[in-house]
């Protein structure tokens, strides 16, 4: 058991990095910011789930999915459907021509609830659907592609096409999905109002807790034998195959796990932001989420969280004041990270931490230097400077 | 659908098929450039759509110039050449500054060129404005011709189709009948050996990439005859063009033509009978489905990596 715990924490160094992250997002940020900003951070942290999933999939597995928005969206829509049904009880929708169905269905002349909405009347089934449907969908895609040894850029292009298909489909099927507006006007969850400030704080902490749990789970997976195989596959796939491993099954597994983690993020997004729309599914959000992971460091689970926060802070700050500048910056970020900082913040930290005596001591004590995970310290400083500014 | 007589359905099919041919021409021109870059070099250029936009904006700009000098009837052929040259030069520079550092990391090339496409879109927006602009077309490109009273075929569509076919033949001749094409193919097949027999493989890479971008520029010039151009025009076609290339089989010109034709016709005809978005969804789903069964595409035999 203690071995499992140790694996999850990633040794002393990993535990410190994780502790700093936990303190930062659970204590420092909530104390330092007003409820509105906390709402924003909460939203960013839901993207961090996707960034973490991409660290598993892309950084460690070498599989670049440009369609993680699919799973984020499936999770988000699952939760949104449940909340929408609760908000559309016959009493409050009495003015509709068919009371008891979501308002957008009524506007689109639907007279009864479509069959695939039925399970979302129950919360346990909804939660099950949020976890299982994206993973199953990922299984189908992964099975079809990895078994035929399709990988690399082909996988990236096809996942991108699937993200496009799903977003057009949702926009096109307005009566069943709410169309381009998405599913809006979400009010309560089992009678509990999710729009109040106190509810926002509760959801923020649930979200942060789930994120840390997902990082622990990912660490456990990566530090197991499977994690080693994943790295080996990324670097020399043929060799792993010739050693007698079924490479495709490992890839399918990691793709499903990544999908599930992204879906949790999507569900938490809906709860905190109060709506879900196809703009979070298509090509652009899916590829932006890759840059979150890339900025944080594609190999670093904790770096991914900081990367997400940093890029989104930048986006909010710049697009409020200089909207034109933001696209240049975002584009430049893609190019710069790829060309000059392939390991992101975590990589930069790793390079310079050795020059600071205190930090060097920290990283030398760990037998397997996974310095990336201590990126925490520098990133915290960057972040705090950013918040003050 | 049952309110139409047979003759009317016939006419609709002919006209939809023709509008499919216009889409086919643009997709083919886009995909040819991509097929050269991706098929020969294995580089994913997500900014390809923006190179098309460069060609389109060049044409629009030249049409404004031509209008002030009153030579609207003659400028268009020059515009195609200049669009090619400008896109070629920018492609050459991009290869030099960016792509050549990333040949060993195809996934990273994808991200870097995506970043490039964002920057280019913003440059278009700052320079030409966020609104869509359109070129002033010469008179001989306007109007339509009517083989029967109910069928209406726009001349610009015919022109674009002709242009696409000419460029296709040009690419074929370049790749398979010229010394340059020989060098490109030799480099693709075995880079080290090609270098050993005296081919400057780095130069070959640069010219191949620039050529692909130049063809995208021609696609842009052609595009201005059938639609107006905005900063994000290029990004609307990028996924479709990638699908064309992957579906056709990356290194095959025949495959690219066949799949561009199939995808454009399917979209165009389905969009009439279903809604526009569902037509697109259905087409893309069929392609993705087929690619899952046959990942190497229609016209290639090797398994993709």
Q: How are strands sequenced across the largest beta sheet of chain A?
A: 1-2
Percent of residues in helices of chain B comes to over 70%
Strand content of chain B: under 5%
Largest protein interface, residues of each chain: A-B, 43 and 44 residues
Distance linking N and C termini of chain A: 44 Å
Count of discrete domains of chain A: 1
- Structural class by SSE content of chain A: mainly alpha
Q: Give the quaternary arrangement of the chains.
A: heterodimer
Separation, N- and C-terminal Cα atoms of chain B: 45 Å
The secondary structure category of chain B is: mainly alpha
Question: What's the alpha carbon Rg of chain B, rounded to whole Å?
Answer: 20 Å
The order of strands across the largest sheet of chain B is 1-2
Biggest sheet record of chain B:
2 strands, antiparallel
Can you tell me the number of structural domains of chain B? 1
Secondary-structure element series of chain A: HHHHHHHHEEHHHHHHHHHH
Q: Major beta sheet of chain A, specifics?
A: 2 strands, antiparallel
Shape of chain B: globular
């Amino acid at each position: 058991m203690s071995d499992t715990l140790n694996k999850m924490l990633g040794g002393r160094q990993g535990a410190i990095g994780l502790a700093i992250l936990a303190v930062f997002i659970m204590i420092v940020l909530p104390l330092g910011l007003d409820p509105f900003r906390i709402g924003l951070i909460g939203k960013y942290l839901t993207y961090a789930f996707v960034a973490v999933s991409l660290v598993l999939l892309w950084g460690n597995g070498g599989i670049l999915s440009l369609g993680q928005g699919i799973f984020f969206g499936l999770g988000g829509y699952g939760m949104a459907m449940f909340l929408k049904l609760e908000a559309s009880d016959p009493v409050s929708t009495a003015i509709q021509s068919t009371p008891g169905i979501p308002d957008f269905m009524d506007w689109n002349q639907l007279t009864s609830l479509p069959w695939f909405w039925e399970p979302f009347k129950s919360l346990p089934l909804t939660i099950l659907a949020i976890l299982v449907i994206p993973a199953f969908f990922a299984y189908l895609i992964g099975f079809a592609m990895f078994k035929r040894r399709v990988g690399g850029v082909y996988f990236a292009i096809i996942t991108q096409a699937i993200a496009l298909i799903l977003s057009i489909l949702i926009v096109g099927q307005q009566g069943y999905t709410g169309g381009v507006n998405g599913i809006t006007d979400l009010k309560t969850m089992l009678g509990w109002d999710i729009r109040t400030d106190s509810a926002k704080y509760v959801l923020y902490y649930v979200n942060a807790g789930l994120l840390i749990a997902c990082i622990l789970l990912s660490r456990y997976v990566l530090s197991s034998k499977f994690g080693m195989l994943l790295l080996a596959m990324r670097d020399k796939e043929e060799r792993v195959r010739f050693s007698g491993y079924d490479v495709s099954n490992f890839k399918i597994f990691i793709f499903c796990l990544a999908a599930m983690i992204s879906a949790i993020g999507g569900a938490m997004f809906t709860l905190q932001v109060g709506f879900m729309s196809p703009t979070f599914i298509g090509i652009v959000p899916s590829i932006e989420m890759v840059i979150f992971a890339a900025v944080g460091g594609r190999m670093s689970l904790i770096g991914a969280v900081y990367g997400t926060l940093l890029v989104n802070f930048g986006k909010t700050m710049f697009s409020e004041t200089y909207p034109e500048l933001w696209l240049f910056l975002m584009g430049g970020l893609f190019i710069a990270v790829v060309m000059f900082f392939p390991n992101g913040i975590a990589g930069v930290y790793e390079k310079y931490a050795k020059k600071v005596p205190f930090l060097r001591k920290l990283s030398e004590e760990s037998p397997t230097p996974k310095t990336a995970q201590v990126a925490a310290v520098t990133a915290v400083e960057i972040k705090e400077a950013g918040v003050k500014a | 659908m049952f309110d139409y007589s047979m003759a009317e359905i016939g006419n609709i099919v002919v006209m939809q098929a023709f509008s499919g041919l216009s889409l086919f021409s643009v997709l083919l021109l886009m995909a040819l450039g991509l097929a050269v870059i991706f098929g020969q070099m294995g580089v994913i250029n997500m900014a390809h759509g923006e190179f098309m936009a460069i060609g389109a904006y060049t044409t629009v700009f030249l049409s404004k110039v031509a209008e002030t000098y009153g030579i609207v009837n003659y400028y268009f052929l020059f515009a195609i050449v200049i669009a090619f040259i400008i896109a070629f030069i920018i492609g050459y520079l991009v290869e030099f500054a960016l792509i050549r550092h990333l040949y060993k990391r195809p996934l990273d090339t994808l991200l870097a060129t995506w970043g490039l496409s964002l920057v280019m879109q913003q440059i278009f927006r700052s320079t030409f404005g966020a609104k869509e602009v359109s070129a002033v077309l010469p008179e001989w490109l306007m109007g339509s011709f009517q083989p029967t009273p109910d069928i209406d075929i726009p001349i610009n569509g015919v022109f674009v189709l002709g242009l696409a076919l000419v460029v296709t033949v040009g690419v074929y001749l370049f790749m398979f009948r010229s010394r340059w094409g020989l060098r490109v193919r030799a480099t693709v097949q075995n880079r080290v050996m090609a270098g050993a027999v005296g081919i400057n493989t780095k130069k070959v890479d640069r010219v191949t990439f620039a050529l692909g971008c130049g063809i995208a520029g021609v696609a842009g010039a052609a595009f201005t005859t059938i639609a107006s151009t905005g900063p994000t025009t290029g990004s609307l076609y990028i996924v479709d063009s990638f699908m064309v290339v992957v579906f056709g089989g990356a290194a095959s010109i025949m495959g690219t033509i066949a799949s561009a034709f199939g995808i454009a016709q399917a979209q165009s005809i389905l969009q009439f009978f279903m809604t526009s978005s569902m037509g697109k969804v259905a087409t893309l789903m069929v392609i993705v489905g087929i690619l899952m069964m046959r990942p190497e595409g229609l016209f290639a035999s090797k398994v993709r990596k």
